Prior knowledge:
Layout: H1 21-40, H2 43-57, E1 63-67, H3 69-86, E2 93-97, H4 117-123, E3 132-136, H5 143-154, E4 158-163, H6 169-173, E5 176-179, H7 194-213, H8 230-244, H9 248-258, H10 261-268
Parallel strand pairs: 1-2, 1-3, 3-4, 4-5
Helix pairs in contact: 1-7, 2-7, 3-7, 4-5, 8-9, 8-10
Amino acid sequence: xxxxxITEASSNHDNLxxxxxxxxxxxxxxxxxxxxxxxxxxxxxxxKLVDGLEERFYKEGRLFYIxxxxxxxxxxxxxxxxxxxxxxxxxxxxxxxxxxxTAIRKAVENAEDATNQAWKDLEAHNITKIDVVVGIAASxxxxxxxxxxxxxxxxxxxxxxxxxxxxxxxxxxxxIPIEINVGPEFVTGSTRMKSGTSQKLALNMISTAxxxxxGRVKGNKMVNxxxxxxxxxxxxxxxxxxxxxxxxKKAEELLKQYGSVxxxxxxxx
Length: 269
C-alpha cells in the first residue's frame, strides 16, 4: 500500500536563511501550534493502548518502547522518568534504542537498519506475552522498529506504533497505529522538531494515564514519587499538609516516619 511521506514533504516556509531571528522563531512557533491538535486526533488510539496496558500491568506486564535516533531517545526519556515520578521499579517501563546506550548521546552508524536487533534487545529482558511493545518512528519505516514490532506481534504481544506518516509500514503493522499528522517540518525532513514534539506529547499521555489508572496518583498528586532531593521532600511534605490539614512540621515528621507520601496519608486517614 502506498502512502504519502509527510515527514519528507517540503516545508511550508522557504528562504529561511534570509529571515531575521525573530521571524524564524515566530514561524517555528506557528508550526508548533499545530502539534497539540494533531495529537488530539489520535486520543482514541492512545486510549485503546492505555486500556490494554492497564490490563497487562495488573498481571505484572511491562511496557517497552523501541526506536532509533530521536524517537529512541524520547522513549528512553519517558521510561527513565517513571521511577522518580511514580515510584515504579525501573524494569516496568523500559526504553530501547537502536545501537544501545551509546546511541543515546551519539549516532551509531547503520544501527537503525538492523531488522532483527530489536527483538534480540527485547529478548535480553525476558519478554513475555503479557508485555507491550510500542514502536516509535516518525517515518514509520525504520527497520529496527519494524522488525521488533513484527516479531512481538507474531509472538502474541500487544503492539502499538507511533508514527508521523499515516499509512506507513509501521502504522500498517502495529495492532494499534497511532498516526500523528503534524504536517511538514519547519526545516524539511527534520523530524526532531514537530514530529519529535508530538511523540513526546503522546508518550506523556500514555505513561501518565497508565500510572493514574493503576493507582500511582492520588487526587492530582504524585504520592508515590521518590524523595531523592530537598525539593521533592518539600513537595511531599506539602502534599501531606494539604491532605491531612496539619502543620508543615507535623507533615514533615510523618514523611520521615513513613518514607512515602501515600503511606503517610493512608496511615492517618
